[in-house]
């Protein structure tokens, strides 16, 4: 390497390094030095990972997890009042079904398809449209141990270790053993994967995996999966209800889950769905923007399923553990938080700080890499914006796509077309100019406690996908979420119908809401907060829901302008 | 990257590249409301910024779900374009309308009801009888916010070249705008997805996957949950 000498010993300038300064410095280098990449991971996480900021943690006062640690913003929605009263049910339409699936992402579709195939009458209700989900945005791929020499055991070991040994062993075992079969099922739905010249599945490594185990379709794995599943559901007997968020669960006389109350976004009316079994697949809570982080999550990720399940008495776990994906877009602002797949680092892209140095092994698990980026920025080695260029508050490090392209000409366009498009949207040719990245709130590690079939503590209530907890411990590996949603979605769909209550429910009510209100008042919790949130505050959904035409028969169109 | 795709972005690239965007605000209309918003917001963000509620027609906010379809006419152009609202930056004098999402496809099929790959072509024409009537009006291509050669894909599918047809639709987000643009009711995006699905369903048979499935079926591979720590450490070290 006869490039310019690298200033590896250079100290951070006092103050900060601006975007243009740092970009000029980057462009003048042909080689990037690595600072010492061997770091004390425990100290790094303690000092810089957002989960470790004690001031953001509180103790739950109400419900089955009373006394447990919980992120304050999550506690606020868990310990809030219901959106409805018993009186709201008086005029509500009633509909009956065998299985109600709440949520129209990958997990919900997989569950609905399996249940419908086994003969159940299925309603799938979703807040927005079928497929509006985090699944559709997943880029990197899906894990399954299929390469020669790789085993479910290695997959298990990697998953357990990356989760800081806090995952539930039996759930992880189920996940990894189902991996190859899950890929086969997806192919049978008509999903394509990237193949080599002989038709074998191509694989890549993920941060924290000991083998090449992630199978993928370009950087559009989730899009390919979701459009195929949506089409499969659309051509099945599943009755899909768009624009129908669930606002409360129903329970029967023995405390079993017995359906849900949906609130239509079209005309704001309520519908009671009476079901023998309910499968919640509502995803995570990124749109609450924990710790004011930008998020890679879709618009509807407001933790609704957590709230509904908790009120009915389901235990949750790891409510203080979230994943911040290392490479979210930091600039330009209108795309802030947008995900750049870990696959780019798997393919060999470095991350470079404002001094032109590598600062972490890019293929460490996500929590380590994210914490390292935050460290660089906090200690003055990040690239920052300022008010004079209209980018106040912007900060990040470089994702060295130009270096990757130089080492592998043509790779970016071939394997990462979505990223190339993202660059174009940002005025950036990523083969020449690096994207500025900063961690983005990506995934809820914890959630509802489930068994190997996705069944919660509450009879008749299954929870699958990101709303559930225990599989990924306190940190998830790339590619394990797509596997989780399909694996456990399918299991729940099958199991829910096989084990449905054959006896009808005697009495169906929302009596559990009275208990919630009593507990909230006894603990002097504020009653003005309502949940589930359904939408982030900035979309002003509550100005719609409080509109005067609400409940009248005239169609108000949901009041969006 | 096709030339077409590049042209689409010239309006963006004409701005001085890589320079931080100015903090200035722009005035535009969205669904006939006049709105002033900072120049670095998308049209959805601008709507929220101005205090208007908007929940329907918003989805992933990442340009891949197809929910936020908008019609846009730029100040200096007469042309009406279809775009995705989450990906569209506000511009001075822009006129934007949210486009209600189209109802689902009228075409129904199940892959499991196609007996063999020899039957796909006949089944395709049975399921999508309108496809061969394409009159090459270019309506679908013009409607596509992802600049896909939709019409070319339909041509290939009609000829039974499903693998090639499917490749045209790699970036399709199923926004259904091409359906609204088609006077023959072809449902072009669903044709594209059919072409992709039959290719996967009938022709993806990876030996690496099949070998592993067999090893799991016979019990050769299983998981022991006890001795994890030592094994895991050894494996990771062996790799590094």
Overview features:
heterodimer, A: 561 residues, alpha/beta, Flavocytochrome C3, Chain A, domain 1, FAD/NAD(P)-binding domain, eight-stranded mixed beta sheet, 25 strands, 29% helix, 18% strand, B: alpha+beta, Ubiquitin-like (UB roll), 11% strand
Care to describe what's here?
- The complex is a heterodimer of chains A (561) and B (240).
- With 561 residues, chain A is an alpha/beta fold.
- Helix content of chain A is 29%, strand content 18%.
- In chain A, the strands form seven sheets. In chain A, strands 6, 7, 10, 11, 12, 13, 22 and 24 form an eight-stranded mixed β-sheet that branches.
- Chain B folds into two domains: 96 residues, Ubiquitin-like (UB roll) (Roll); 93 residues, no CATH class.
- In chain B, β3 and β4 form a beta hairpin.
- Chains A and B meet through α1, α5, α6, α7 and α8 of A and α3, α9, α10 and α11 of B.
CATH architecture of the largest domain in chain B: Roll
Low-pLDDT regions of chain B: 1-22, 230-240
Over the alpha carbons, how many angstroms does the gyration radius of chain B reach?
A: 24 Å
Tell me the name of the CATH class of the domain at 86-136 and 174-195 and 216-321 and 445-498 in chain A. Alpha Beta
- Terminal CA distance of chain B reads 36 Å
The share of residues in extended strands of chain A comes to 15-25%
Label the structural class of chain A: alpha/beta
CATH-defined fold name of the largest domain in chain B: Ubiquitin-like (UB roll)
What's the CATH H-level homologous superfamily of the domain at 86-136 and 174-195 and 216-321 and 445-498 in chain A? FAD/NAD(P)-binding domain
Which percent range fits the helix content of chain B? 25-40%
Coarse shape of chain A: globular
Q: State the strand order across the main sheet of chain B.
A: 2-1-5-3-4
- Gross CATH architecture of the domain at 86-136 and 174-195 and 216-321 and 445-498 in chain A: 3-Layer(bba) Sandwich
Mean pLDDT rating of chain A? 91
Instruction: Give the amount of beta strand of chain B, in percent.
Output: 5-15%
Q: Write down the overall mean pLDDT of chain B.
A: 85
